[in-house]
Specification:
Blueprint: H1 2-32, H2 37-42, H3 49-83, H4 95-109, H5 118-138, H6 144-167, H7 173-180, H8 190-208, H9 210-216, H10 220-225, H11 230-252, H12 258-268, H13 274-299, H14 309-327, H15 335-339, H16 348-368, E1 369-371, E2 376-378, H17 386-416, H18 429-442, H19 449-471, H20 478-501, H21 507-514, H22 523-542, H23 544-550, H24 554-559, H25 564-586, H26 592-602, H27 608-632, H28 641-658
Antiparallel strand pairs: 1-2
Keywords: Cell membrane, Membrane, Transmembrane, Transmembrane helix, Transport
Membrane topology: Multi-pass membrane protein
Family: Belongs to the binding-protein-dependent transport system permease family. FecCD subfamily.
């Protein structure tokens, strides 16, 4: 059995290698038939367009795919070994988002004379992001769940910041967005010549440290007792891993999940020694990305558009996370530990008073007070102010209603799933809703709000059903539901990127909507979503007793007479409809559906009815504040409300995460 298992990585590598040989033969075949293979590689005929295209586009793209895949897989293997975390990678730990944000700022702001510092800027962005994740998770002993949560927080924070920058530089939006989606298309050998020495240097450095990596894999105490300088080694190896990642992203954009899926697959296949894992990761990662890119190239040119390889890679890599979670119990912590880890950080009475006062004063403040560049300006009550007041009312109440809808949705998901870290955006509901609407609008031409709401709700429901099926094996344990939800969100996000790169002139509008904007709302739509939210909130409150039973767990609920499966589906259906309604009105919003019920619970709203009302009060206030800030923070320009809400949410969870308890 052991010998058979040890042969799996070799057999996998041979199969992938043979597939890549087949790809090379397929690409070279037109020239092999004519005996021009050597010529097209080294000295193409300048009068033959096919030879020029192959030599300066296809051939460097093949080399680039191998180098990027090899580098990212090696970086992922090193990070996983150092942190002893099978779900760690440049993507999940915020390194990719840090590099992408740094390069986005650099490309849009830095003058051409600063180009020589681009790589250093990218490296700094990746190191700062990884450092932030590590500092947050270190407060929790670098537990697997908290590393991934910290990475998610940093990722969302940096992605929100990147979107803000892009939305104010629309002239660069399509090209930067395509680069951010991971574009391996080449028009020469310059990018390959840039990345080749850097990836080789990183590989040599990491492979040279493979023996100390074996010591780190044993644990810090054991490594220290054997004479290893754990902190120095960890920083060195992480530094080289980030250097490789920064080099790849600088040259080709963000390519996700190769650094996670490849080393994780090799570990499952039986590789344990660090040196073997690193060598196999280099070859396997290179071959895998070559194969994925070859598949992508077969779809290029359809409709005149290009399919980004980086986004397509997530479609192959993210499902593998789900496979990992189903194959091995990587987190032994119990569910009860997760549930009772909350501390009451603010009193329920104090929070209720603050929220009530804020709501009353905030509505008046939001409607009548703004910034005009010189300070606060008060809106008068003359006839000319009516249109301004109407516009502010539409936007303010749209944001508030969406906050309420997402708060109820998140509360239902958290209570029924018995998961204090679940929410519409993290479980994939918001992403599925947005994706369904984008496909319906951009590809099939649906434009009616009623049609889009039905389609979006259907997408959210399907996403929730898939998540429940995936987590059924683990009785919906919080960490497995969270990580499977993140994998689903990654898959759906990749499809969104692919659709956006093929949406042409609609990209700017869709990007604004995806960032969460109240700009396009009108009062009729606000009232419709308000009615849906009010009705479903009343239904949820009327079902507060079954919600309490559902929170006790499957066995207890069934013993007390609750048909848990049917009730769970009904509550998830309500949650999906609420998320779809909010997404239709404003766009997908991050963290509101997670933060509102979470803060309500730690404030003391424990019973289902109070939990729902407390979450609604928090969600309404958060979105009201976010909308006013988005409208006035950089007047006369405006920011997307959803991005401001995301910044508020990530700030809250940053503070929560760095607490010892």
């Amino acid at each position: 059995m052991t010998n058979t298992r040890s042969n799996i990585p070799a057999a996998l590598l041979v199969a992938l290698g043979l597939s890549c040989i087949g790809i090379l033969i397929a690409d070279f075949w037109p020239f092999l038939q004519k005996g021009l293979a050597t010529q097209v590689m080294f000295s193409p005929d300048e009068t033959d367009f096919d030879q020029i295209l192959f030599h300066y586009s296809t051939l460097p793209r093949l080399v680039m795919a191998f180098l990027c895949g090899a580098g990212l897989a090696l970086a992922g293997a090193a990070i996983q070994t150092v942190l002893r975390n099978p779900l760690a990678s440049p993507t999940t730990l915020g390194v990719g988002a840090g590099v992408e944000f740094a390069l986005t700022i650099f490309l849009l702001v830095a003058p051409a004379s600063m180009a020589i510092f681009q790589e250093a800027f990218a490296l700094a962005g990746g190191m700062i992001a990884l450092g932030a994740v590590y500092l947050i998770a270190s407060k929790r002993g670098n537990a697997t769940l908290w590393l991934i949560l910290a990475g998610m927080i940093v990722n969302l924070l940096l992605q929100s910041a990147s979107q803000i920058v892009l939305l104010f530089n629309e002239q660069y939006l399509q090209s930067v967005f395509m680069w951010g989606a991971g574009d391996l298309a080449q028009n020469g050998w310059e990018a390959t010549q840039f990345i080749l020495p850097r990836v080789i240097i990183g590989m040599i450095a990491v492979l040279a440290l493979s023996r100390p990596l074996d010591l780190l894999a044993l644990g810090d105490d054991t490594a220290n007792s054997l004479g290893a300088k754990v902190t120095v080694l960890r920083l060195l190896i992480l530094g080289f891993a980030v250097f490789i990642t920064a080099s790849v992203i600088s040259a080709a954009g963000l390519i996700g999940f190769v650094g996670l899926a490849v080393p994780a697959a090799l570990r499952i296949a039986g590789l344990t020694r660090s040196r073997d894992l690193m060598i196999y990761s280099v070859l396997t990662g290179g071959f895998v990305l070559m194969i994925i890119d070859f598949i992508v190239r077969q779809f290029n040119g359809l409709g005149g558009d290009v399919l980004p390889t980086g986004a397509a890679t997530a479609l192959f890599g993210a499902p593998f996370i789900i496979l990992i979670l189903r194959k091995a119990r990587i987190m032994p912590g119990t569910q009860s530990e997760d549930q009772h880890s909350d501390q009451e950080i603010v009193s329920k009475l104090g929070l209720s008073i603050i929220l009530g006062i804020t709501l009353v004063l905030g509505i008046g403040f939001s409607l009548f007070i703004s910034l005009d560049g010189n300070g606060f300006a008060v809106l008068g009550l003359d006839g000319d102010s009516y249109d301004i007041l109407l516009g502010r009312s539409e936007r303010t109440f749209a944001a508030m209603i969406c906050g309420a809808a997402l708060a109820v949705s998140g509360t239902l998901i958290q209570r029924v799933g018995r998961n204090p870290l679940a929410s519409p955006e993290i479980t994939g509901v918001s992403s599925a809703t947005a994706l369904a609407m984008i496909i319906a609008l951009a590809i099939f031409g649906f434009a009616q709000r009623a049609e889009l709401m039905v389609i979006g709700a259907a997408g959210g429901i399907v996403s929730l059903l898939v998540l429940l099926v995936l987590c059924r094996k683990f009785t919906h344990a919080p960490h497995y539901m969270l990580l499977n939800g993140l994998a689903l969100t990654a898959i759906l996000g990749a499809i969104v990127r692919i659709v956006l790169t093929r949406s042409g002139t609609q990209t700017t509008m869709l990007m604004s909507w995806l960032a969460g904007t109240t700009y396009f709302t009108n009062m009729n739509e606000v009232m419709i979503v308000a009615g849906v939210t009010a009705v479903l909130l009343i239904v949820a409150i009327a079902l507060r007793r079954p919600l309490e039973l559902a929170s006790l767990g499957t066995d207890q609920s069934v013993s007390l007479g609750l048909g848990i499966s049917g009730f769970q589906f009904a509550m998830m259906l309500l949650a999906a409809i609420l998320a779809a309604s909010a997404t239709l009105l404003v766009g997908p919003l991050s963290f509101v559906g997670l933060m509102a019920p979470h803060l309500a619970r730690v404030a003391g709203y424990r019973l289902a009815g109070g939990h729902l009302l407390g979450a609604v009060l928090i969600g309404v206030n958060v979105m009201m504040v976010a909308e006013w800030l988005a409208r006035n923070l950089i007047y006369p320009a405006q920011l997307p409300t959803g991005l401001i809400a995301a910044l508020i949410g990530t700030s809250y969870f940053m503070i929560l995460a760095v607490r010892k308890r």
